[in-house]
Amino acid sequence: MKVLEKAPAKINLSLDVLGKREDGYHEVRMVMATIDLADRVECESLPEDKIVIRTTAPYVPEDNRNFAYQAAKIIKERYSIRTGVEISIDKQIPVAAGLAGGSSDAAATIRALNRLWKIGMTYESMLDIAKKVGSDVAFCIKGGTALATGRGEKISPLPPLPQCWIVLVKPDVSVSTAQIYREWDDQPALHPDVDAMIAAIMHGDFQAICHLLGNTLEAVTMKKVDEIARIKAHMRRIGAEGILMSGSGPTVFALTQRETRMQRLLNGMKGYCPQVFAVRLCRSAELLSKYE
Ligand SMILES: C[C@](O)(CO)[C@H](O)COP(=O)(O)OP(=O)(O)OC[C@H]1O[C@@H](n2ccc(N)nc2=O)[C@H](O)[C@@H]1O
Ligand SMILES: Nc1ncnc2c1ncn2[C@@H]1O[C@H](COP(=O)(O)OP(=O)(O)OP(=O)(O)O)[C@@H](O)[C@H]1O
User: Fold this and answer.
1) DSSP secondary structure of 221-276
2) 214 marked ligand binding residue
């Protein structure tokens, strides 16, 4: 038997870090949204008791370092599953890009194995497994728009954003999330107004959402990756309502509600950077409707 799940990427509309915790992680407050740029995760039963990972991307590990493997292992142990699974990941989300590709694959694996092995997990049980794999995995279980707090694993849903286009530009470099958080500790930080962003989302005020976009990690990554400032400036020249780096970067996104502007951004940025995408938002119910 085979089960297929979509694993969509996220962007951070507002990302604040409140400080470093005793466990080494950072306390965050961030508003996240799921976008329609997605990997596809297929789980197929194996009679033997093993977990096999296959991916289409050259630099993604196919062993126990893969977040999908880690999620499957926890589920097998917790629910005493004695058969195996082959997990095939069709990667469309750029890797190490600030878009939570690996985290979303892990979340999709949790949803898929719940169906494949007919476990009947609650949303809370899924969250409990998710946070053992990584901080962003919990948000990716349901997706949509949400406030994430703690180290990112405490999720409070928010209303959907007004529909818009998201143009993503991924510079040809990768950054380490751990290193960006470490360097954040050593430099003065700007703090975006997360509460004002939440209010703008509550009011469905697209212009205010664009105006309030902010990410305290952006300045840290910009110091290491010169291209981010160049991409932002170029996008600003072409025209976008709001522009920001996602997560720990280096992907930059621009929001616009106008299709002509989206086309202009897409065409203008394509000659500038190898990886450019224009996508829509993705609603949470599309991911977890089977459990609600
Ligand atoms: C930057 C974001 O992508 C924003 O959504 C997330 O905060 C990162 O989430 P993630 O990639 O799932 O992070 P994890 O895999 O849990 O942690 C990777 C590393 O990032 C650092 N880390 C992560 C999350 C957090 N709240 N504080 C941290 O300091 C830790 O050094 C950790 O070892
Ligand atoms: N299924 C997976 N897909 C992609 N990378 C994975 C996967 N499993 C493990 N990894 C490892 O995780 C690292 C980070 O990949 P990922 O694409 O999730 O980063 P990211 O988009 O920056 O994540 P985040 O926004 O959550 O910080 C990769 O370099 C890779 O070694």
Assistant:
1) HHHH-THHHHHHHHHHHH--SEEEE-TTSS-EEEEES-HHHHHHHHHHHHTT-SEE
2) no
